[in-house]
Amino acid sequence: MLGMISNRKFKIRTIALLLCIIICGLLFRFSRPSYDVIVLETLGGQINDPKAINNVGQVVGGLDVGVHGRKHAFIWSESEGIRDLGTLGGLESDALDINDNGEVVGTAMDPNGIYNGFLWTAESGMTNLGTFGGVGCSIYGINNSGQMIGRYRLLGMSNYGFVREADGSLFGLPMLSARSCFPNDINDKGQVVGSYIINGKSHAFYWDGESGVNFIAGKVGPSSEALGINDKGQVVGTIFEPKINDLVGFTWSKADGLVKMTLSNVESSGNIINDSGEIAGIAETKGFMFIQPKRYNYLMTSSGSIANLDKFVTTDNNGFYIRDLNENGWLVGHLDCAKISPITNKTNHIGFVLKPKGLYKRIRQNKQGNYK
């Protein structure tokens, strides 16, 4: 009798263990990144190129309008669809960033053919911010306090970076003997990252109002570029790695310094980082003999696991770029190739949104509590 009871307990424990393994496997399988693909509309043209998405789910970028293919800035949301933001009296415009208040910045042509920085709001429309004394200007970023970053160009082809405060006052980023300064991102603390061009090489920098300019990889070190920063001061970008004679992605913070990404001996870049520590970027495997290099977009979670994002949009591995990532895990990008699966087989430049779905979406909801 005791033997039968013991045997029965063993069977129950074995079954329970198997069920646990199966359930854990299913949870792992379905909690990995999974997305609905939303294709953005066009307005009579063939190109839709989204640049940024805010935490409300609004997307901005540029699309060609009508048969002549002139680019116009646009804003899109699931509830309201796509809207042409117009120009400053010229032929073209392009929206480059949007904050959570729905304020859009970018560059637009005036009647004289000069590109000016602009601010657009639903209440006031497109406002001309001028060229700040240059022959052309672009506003690349805006945070939730209304601080902007951009650059203006002079006749000598030098580019000067600046920070524009919400009250309209302007601060020019120091040039430090550089030919050009390209600010790429600003967080809600007013911290800025980008790159300086010094003696023909790009050098990543971090700037804040207290410590000034910090060269992330040294002022005379290897070529590098800082591309994104979150509100925790964590920076992502790309740097030349002599060991593989190619570029690799990096993370940087004041506390941890420069940390190069290890993505199995591939060329890579870290393009975007959100406050959860998720990183989106591009990687490319090395070719060997008859094996062609393979390029793909990736999402790296805060725990370090990596998902290949290409499989959600294309099987052709051509012209696919993730441009932005918000706190809710939504990604925006564009695709330019002849064969696209599972969306369409048309040859054009398509903008899209990847929106988390299923268990992956619910896990994000539980972690953040603010999923839209």
Distance between the termini: 59 Å
CATH superfamily: YVTN repeat-like/Quinoprotein amine dehydrogenase
Apparent shape: globular
Beta fraction of the residues?
A: over 45%
Overall mean pLDDT stands at 84
Number of helices: 2
* Relative helix content: 10-25%
Low-confidence stretches: 23-30, 339-347
Number of domains: 1
Rg calculated over all Cα atoms:
23 Å
Q: Within the largest sheet, what's the order of strands? A: 1-28-27-26
Notes on the protein architecture:
The protein has one domain: Methylamine Dehydrogenase, Chain H. By secondary structure, the chain is mainly beta. It starts with a helix and ends with a helix. Mean pLDDT is 84; it is low at 23-30 and 339-347. Helices cover 11% and strands 48% of the residues. Strands 1-28-27-26 form a 4-stranded antiparallel sheet. A hairpin with a 4-residue loop joins strand 3 (59-65) and strand 4. The chain has helices spanning 2-31, 358-368; strands at 35-39, 44-53, 59-65, 70-77, 81-86, 93-98, 104-109, 115-121, 125-130, 136-142, 148-153, 159-164, 170-172, 180-186, 192-198, 201-208, 212-215, 224-229, 235-241, 246-253, 257-260, 267-273, 279-284, 295-300, 306-308, 320-325, 331-337, 348-356. The protein has 2 helices and 28 strands.
